[in-house]
What does this fold into?
Amino acid sequence: MTIWRRLPLARRDDQGSGTVLLLALVAVALVVAAMLGLLASAQLGRGHAQTAADLGALAGAGRLLAGEPGDPCVTVAEAVRRNGARLSSCTDEGGGVVRVRVVVSGAAGSATASARAGPASARR
It folds into this structure.
């Protein structure tokens, strides 16, 4: 009869273990969600940087091809700034070609992108 008396005590020791397991699963789910959010933020920053670089390069190349006097990098800097990025470098490669590099700061860090624009005859 002593075996039967010990069984209810063993079951009492397991009470609440489901709650601990559930809390652990919730914590793991929250960590995974936070990591996915950080990854999405990084990808968004990269896309934002690439858009700013593309538009800046196109603006600079457009200015060169229109024959407007002056440095195309001024136009590039303005286009990049209006797109929420910071111009890292701008190079007039000649022949109407402009190469641009931009940086965008975000929650996941800094994202960089580069672009090159010019006439089709300047393709490499």
